[in-house]
Amino acid sequence: MWLQIALSLAVGVAAWQSAVSFSDIPSYVLPAPKSVLAALLDGISQSPLVRSSFWFHLFDTLKATVSGFAIGASIGLVLAAFMAEFRVVENAALPYVVGLQSLPKVAIAPLLVIWLGYGSESKVAMAAVLTLFPVLINGLQGFRSSARDRLEMMAALKASRWQTFRHIKLPGALPMIFAGLHIGIVYAMLGTIVSEFTGAQRGMGVIMMQLQTVSDTAGVFAALVLLGFTGYVLISTMRLLQRRLVFWAENGDQTRGI
């Protein structure tokens, strides 16, 4: 696996270098890989306490991403459980869910900045909003996909609603829930970056805007590389957690989702 990833990256970098070397593409449009590497090393070699350091901004972006993801995922799972268990909750919440889902949620970032200011609150809120819907939809589908024979068995045993949910519906929904969480963690970072573009005091989106202002394309590419690696670490962490909690599920069931 790691060999394949390394080979794929090597081929990609070689193609990138060839495009730069054998064409007239200006460096401010497509910088050479060595320029991006130099900018990346310069950004991560500085002290995290310095505002020009990538670490200074990455920590703030990561904190908002994880916080918003935790909030959005928690709300989404609780709401999905209540919607699956109580028809009245579903009928009351469904119009709002459908309406908000149809909105371009990224477009509400300026509104969140107006409401919550330029601090971390607006970034956390944006990350939570983008996390909520994939977790809610996948969780709702998972809770409703419980095997009928198992539900009938619990009914025959006169199990309570909570016992049926805890022992049958929740374990059976875990593969779908993790499918939503995988999407949610990616959307959480996207929401944080978009909120930083709209208005923030620190974060990777802020430093990327600053680098773009001075036409430092290599620096922007370096920030994107760092964000890509960070996203890969977050997704890998989620996969590791999934393997620990849903070890009994088949691979096909674990990855199924919207």
Write the layout of secondary structure elements.
Layout: H1 2-21, H2 33-45, H3 54-85, H4 87-102, H5 109-116, H6 120-143, H7 148-156, H8 161-198, H9 204-213, H10 217-245, H11 251-254
Notes on the structure:
The chain contains eleven helices and no strands. The longest helix has 38 residues, at 161-198. It has a single domain (51-254), classed as MetI-like fold. It has helices at 2-21, 33-45, 54-85, 87-102, 109-116, 120-143, 148-156, 161-198, 204-213, 217-245, 251-254. It is mainly alpha-helical and 258 residues long.
What gap, in angstroms, lies between the N and C termini?
26 Å
Number of strands: 0
Approximate shape: elongated
State the name of the first-level CATH class.
Answer: Mainly Alpha
Look at the structure and give the mean pLDDT. 87
**Domain count:** 1
Could you give the order of the helices and strands? HHHHHHHHHHH
Query: Class by helix and strand content?
Result: mainly alpha
Largest sheet: none
| CATH homologous superfamily placement | MetI-like
Oligomer: single chain
CATH architecture: Orthogonal Bundle
Helical segment tally?
Answer: 11
Percent range of helical residues: over 70%
Percentage of residues in DSSP E strands: under 5%
Taking all Cα atoms into account, the compactness measure Rg is 22 Å
Q: Segments where pLDDT lies below 50 for 5+ residues?
A: 252-258
Could you name the CATH topology?
MetI-like fold
